[in-house]
Model the fold of this input.
Amino acid sequence: MPATEPNAEPKAGSDTGTPSTVAAAIAEYLCGQGIERVFSLPGSHMKPIWAELAERGVRIVTARHEVAAVHMAQAEADLRHRLAVAIVTTGPGLTNAVTGIGCAFLAGSPVLVISTRPPDEQAGMGALEEIDQAAIVRPVCRAVEVVRSRRHVVDRLDRAVSAALGDDGPSGPVYVEFGSELLRQAAAPLYTTYPRRTRARRPPDPAAVGRAVDAIAASRRPLVLAGREALTVPGPLAEFVRTTGALYLDTRASRGALSEDIPSFVPAARARVMAEADLVITVGRQLDFEAAYGSPAVFTAAERFLRIGRNSEEVQANRRGDVELRADPRSALDALVTAGAEPVDLDREWREDVMRGNAGKRRRLGETMRAPAAVADDGLHPHEVIRALNEHIDDAAIVIVDGGDILSWSRSSLNTPTYLDLGPFGCLGVGVPFAVSASLNHPDRTVVALVGDGALGFNVMELETAVREGARVVVVVADNSAWNIERADQVLHYQGQVMGTELGPCAWDRLAESLGVAGYRADNADELDAALGAAFAHAPALVAVRVSREPISPDTRSGLALVPEYHVLTAWDEAEQAWLSGPRHGDVESHR
Done:
């Protein structure tokens, strides 16, 4: 049998050592990294990799569009806190995937994207699907490797995986490309072994720990803001918040790291605590748009920022830490607790007052959700949909929210400890792909996607993927036949001139049924409760809910759709402008 045949020799991992082909070497490396499944679509250029993976028992989950395949890989990476893999074919397969790669990039999700190119012998000759793929993805990848020699295959893969996991910088997607003819070549002997990579611990410098302890000791009103990696250290984070007496705020990246039942978790008092805290402690958290870029116009009382993180983005970007602790969150939090980090004179009266205010606001929100304002168009208020969903999910549920208006309503009222949404890229269309991946990774847990009707249109065909792959998801569609966050902004700020933001009707339940998914329709609260009960009993299922356009969402009221100049919210933007126009705007100390 010729040496270039994929099955010419025994597979790697046997006593004979070197894999038979480059495709086999790729598959063997991925298996060594603990990869159980890859997300992909068929493509002639990369089929040899599929064949080798399948022979090793790796599950190949085929989506209906490459962007959905990358979304599925991102959900696996985010939910299981490990490397995930998407394989996309040449040309349009890769360009279709770019939006998904961008979404994973801003979320910091460790996704390995593998693709192929036309044979190098045809390079520059106008080959089928020939395009500079590496140049296209380079701006949205932590590393890009174009492999041209069989000697470099495993080494470049391993180097890319190291970058994806954030060994030397922020984690995120990486891209590795192989020539299609290279896959069929005999594999080269390996110089060394390639054990499974995990994100290494990074212990803090003892001197930096001392400075952090001093900063905490001097504070009276400490606040903790956590990032994505907090999800991997809920115990140490909870202990740190308890021992320091700090108040705690999450963002979408860290939602679920701490229980909402912890009194010091004060999401309903976000504006107040950001304005009044004197020490802001960020744990693996960029000071991005959700944290007002650390601006003194928003954090008006903050005398110091203590920034804990692995890399410069987490300890320096936008507002450098007055104290910087370069370490992984677990090591840093453990070291601070062990060193006895706590305020000498904690302002307990302020702390208790903030917690009482937070509890009061949350109680009033619950009352509002139980008796939402009446609407004239007979659709359900979004709060009614979320309230009903809250009653049908348990603490183990995984909930994904995808859309504009429905995300805004959900942010403060949806009860779930495990949560994903469209992320800092604002990437509509993630709902169904994320849900499919979540169900495949956690088949014993309830998985729900709450999706706006506009957002569902992006990847609705992945309902068929759910059926084919056995993903028991429930999709709840908030159907108001509009891009409603934009429509409402036009009504409020464009003299009521509605342009391109209204959508035609769609029988989503019947569309779902045509794809093999149980479909239900709810036009009132009683029908919704019954439909949800049936959907959870017969997943995969979809419930289309008639939702009113009338209620103005919190994000619309806050000016998100206006795209303010300095901040994402109008109130923050106005505060920034006032700060900049002050007599000493260049002197940060004068505004503390």
Remarks:
- The chain has a mean pLDDT of 92.
- The two ends are 76 Å apart (CA to CA).
